[in-house]
Amino acid sequence: MRPPGASIASRRLPVHPVDRSPRLPRRAAALAALLLALIGSSAFAQTSPAIDLLRRASSSRDRARAAESLGRLRPEGARLALEAALDDRSSTVRVASAQALEALGDPAAMPALDRHARDHDSRTRAAVTRARAALQRRPRVATASDWITTPFAAAPTLSPTLSSPTLVMSAPIDWRRVRVLFTLGALVNHSSADPTHAAALREALRATVAEDQRYAIHPGALPSSASSRLRHGDLQTYSLEGTLSALRPGEASGSNLSVRAEVSLVLLAEPSHSIAATITGSATAQEVRLAIPNQPDPMPRLRLRAIEGAARGAMRSLQAQLLPRR
User: Fold this and answer.
1) Domains, in order of start, for the chain
2) Strand, helix or coil at 276?
């Protein structure tokens, strides 16, 4: 339950089922098993599955959606992957890649865009032209410096209420009830240089997952019972990436202070790395300004509350799509 003054909104998109086709080659299945074994390590968390999907997916639709995802999330390595995708055989992917490079806002992509200014496809040429024009007006945007990667076992969770910033430990996982397993991937902060904001996003997602026993965050090493269910396809697995896309003061209203946060999440089905869903959440945290001398600045607290509310709203909507309550 959110406190008075907080509002949560999300945009729902269709969730596509996990590809469990028996035609998956043995070699690919072995690779998928290796990737799952690496889930939870810091090295794995620092690699965006969307980049791998853009490079390797056989479907042009999946590659285009991966490009769009990289434009929103802006993980490390996104620009180079998108520049390479400008040579994709599919014009749809080339258009999506040019648009994502525009969204990244990094002028370092200009040489690659210049090389594709005369693409034989008119839609691609138009997208490249728009991206070049936009990047000529923008300063370079930082990406890697905004990252935060928290080890799975060490990260605490925020308390369920938005009003309290107290950290609490996660409850033990009842693996008999878990039906969906999440791996937290890249969680990027585009709103500020404050690392606590990205940490608050991660902790809010973990806390929301922990509230429903049908879901769990991958702990890094699975018990034998869960590993058996994973091998038999009885446990759905997803990677979850996200970005804190906006964090700004709300409209002033009398003595009230407010902060609004916006969060975007991308869900990737494992082991195919196909994009299963994208969803956004937003929340506004409010507080009455008190005329008390030497009062601590309430804005840092409001920012954390807004981030937690936006993350919880997006995550709950995502969970409702995966496993609707009856």
Assistant:
1) 1-46+147-326 (3.30.160.150), 48-142 (1.25.10.10)
2) strand
Q: What is the pLDDT of residues 169-179, one digit of tens each?
A: 456 788 889 99
Tokens 């008075």 map to which residue? 4
Cis amide bond preceding 271, omega within 30: yes
For residue 73, which amino acid is it? L
CB atoms within 10 A of CB 213: 15
Alpha carbon distance 88, 201 (integer Å): 34
Query: What Å distances lie between residue 302 and 63, 191, 199, 262, 263, CA to CA?
Result: 38, 14, 15, 14, 16
d(CA 319, CA 215): 8
Q: What angle do CA 155, 158, 164 make, to 5 degrees?
A: 150
pLDDT digits (tens, 9 = 90+) for 61-109: 989 988 988 888 777 788 889 999 999 999 999 999 999 998 888 888 8
The helix (run of H) or strand (run of E) holding residue 242 is: strand 236-249
CA distance 180 to 184: 13
Long-range contacts of range 126-129, CB-CB < 8 Å, 24 or more positions apart? Answer: 127/94, 127/95, 127/98, 127/99, 127/102, 128/86, 128/98
As a whole-number percent, the residues of the chain with pLDDT over 70 amount to: 71
- The token duo for 141 is 């945007």
User: What mean pLDDT is reported for the chain?
Assistant: 75
| Residue pair 283/306 in contact by the 8 Å Cβ criterion | yes
- β partners of residue 285: 259
> 291 Cβ partners below 8 Å, 6+ apart?
none
For 128, other C-beta atoms within 10 Å of its C-beta total 27
pLDDT interval class at 182 (50, 70, 90):
very high
Both tokens of 318, joined, read 């995502």
3-state secondary structure 30-59: HHHHHHHHHCCCHHHHCCCHHHHHHHHCCC
Judge whether residue 312 has pLDDT over 80.
yes
